[in-house]
Structure formats: C-alpha cells, structure tokens
C-alpha cells in the first residue's frame, strides 16, 4: 500500500484520540502532538474522533478536530497511538477491513521493551513508529521503525530564551524527579568527575500548579509536565544530565525469552541486555535550550533515532562502564563544549521540530516530496 503519493495532493489524516482529562490523568498524547503541529504547518488538517489539543492556550481551535462529515474510512491515513490503549480503549472496529484504501499507522512512545506493538495483531498495521528503539533488540517486527519524542512548539517556546553558552552559569543539572537505574549510575560515576568543571545542581521543583494563566493551561494539559520554574534553570545552565532508562533482556518477545531460559535452564547473561526507555522529554528540552547534553553513547548502546546525533559533535556520550575512559573523553572534549552545545541545538531543531517530524512521517508513507511543503 506504500508509495501511493499522487502528484501534489496532500493526504487526509484521521487520528483516534482520547479526550483530555484532569492534570493527574491528562491523557497527554505526546506521540502525536508534534506530528500534528507539523502537519498543520504544511496545511494538512488532522481529523479525529474527538476535539483534542487547542492550537494554543487561548485558542478555541483544536489541533485534532472532530467532524460528523469525516470518518476514518474517508481518509488516506488512520493513526493510533499508545495512549489510546493505555486508557482502556479497544482496537477500533473494522480498522483492518478487507479492501480498505487507507494506510494504518501506530505511534508507540510507551515505556519498556515489550510494548503492545510487538503483539501479533499489531502486524496488521502498515507501519509502526516506535520511540525508545534499540536496534540490538531481537524479534523486532518488520513493520516497526525508529521514532522519537521530538520537539513540540511548547518546548521550543519555553526554551527559546537561553543565554549564549559562555554567558550561562557553570552548572550541571542532574535534578530528576523520577529515578531510573541508569540515572543512579550516572550520578555515582559522573558527579565526582564533573565537579571540578561544573557546579552540580540536584534540586527539584514540586508539581505545584503555576499561577500564570497560559502556563497553568499547559501544566494541566501536559499532565503537569510543563513546569515554568524549570525552564529558566534550563536556559541558564551550561550542561545537563539526560540519562534515562534501564537495562533489559534484548529478546523482545517474552514467549521466546521464556523458551530460551527454559531450554538452557540458566539466566541469560548480562551481555544480552540492552538499554530501554532512554528517550525523554528532558532530552529534547535540553537540546532545544542549547545545553550541553550528557547521555550514554547512543550508537554504542544500539539506541536508534530516525536521524542520529554524532557523539562529540552534538552531545557528549559517555561510557559509564569505563569511568577512566569517560573522564578522558570529557577532558578531550572540554575545549569544544560551547560548540557542541550549539550544534546540538541546531541538529535537534533541524531534524525533530514539528515540521521536520511531519515531513518524515509523510515521506515514510509515500506522501511527501519537495513540492508538498
């Protein structure tokens, strides 16, 4: 069904969305918001089963609009995302009906190695875009491609006030509210190494609602992820820890994993473990703010994005398994920290802005060429 782009025609797209909930369960569908923002820039309207996500906090228009006149089967592309199932919805009836004329897409930003998109019934989707992708995973379905959280207009706006890197505070932000095993390892190994270069800031902010109206609206609809107290710290700091995730077995199919373990009656060795849940909002906020990003060496760990940053050029990827090597790497890069931070921001904006995400989405589905935008 791919490659059905017809001339300059822009496709019609239908999204199955959850209605927005209260701040503690906002049902923030972060996998599709940047995509829809980019599609809107191109001039493609996003239809939906419900009205979802105001174009801006004070707008009465929605990014995803419901219409009695537009059904999924009337469109060229139909999209679901992992939040749809997390909040109790079933697979839409007749989604995979025989002789359908639309492409089916699933956007999976869920945590963990074995997510819903590995189940057999998800093979019926024409394509699955998966964040936290690791190319070393065994049993990756053929219809699955790497994806990313990426940048939203909200993130870009909130991080657009950063000082030039040399004028910022010599601070390394390592202030996590959610603890991952990798973050603890990074703290134990990196903090002693970096304290001679940066002041280490581990302070965190509460989930308190902001007082300013626009910020409060963003706080509510992002499930309290929008924190106006955090962004000034980000815009003024030189460096930041963006480590996240944990190691898990690289066999994606749990049935196969159990068979292997039962067959050999031993625990699978550590060498077969891969890093999962390594993508984060923090990573993209940091890139957008022009901070010097510290993470693992993504390529070395098998972590895969649609467009990869270069270690030492756009971020600092360290080998936590070898502290001495990590320190030597950091020391060699130290004179170039300012340039690395600058190039990291340019790389993120060029490849993961809403417009860039939308173009990539359309290209993968055969609906984009240089004339469409």
Describe this structure in words.
This protein has 373 residues and is α/β, with parallel strands linked by helices. The chain has 2 domains: 13-109 and 353-364, no CATH class; 154-244 and 280-352, Rossmann fold. Helices cover 30% and strands 16% of the residues. It has 12 helices and 15 strands. It has helices spanning 33-42, 82-86, 153-158, 181-194, 213-221, 230-236, 254-264, 281-289, 298-301, 323-333, 337-352, 354-364; strands spanning 13-15, 46-48, 52-54, 62-66, 77-81, 103-108, 127-130, 144-146, 169-173, 199-201, 237-241, 246-249, 273-276, 292-296, 316-318. Strands 3-4-2-1-5-6-7-8 form an 8-stranded mixed beta sheet. α1 (33-42) links the parallel β1 and β2. α1 (33-42) packs across α12 (354-364). The chain starts with 12 loop residues before the first strand and ends in a 9-residue tail after the last helix.
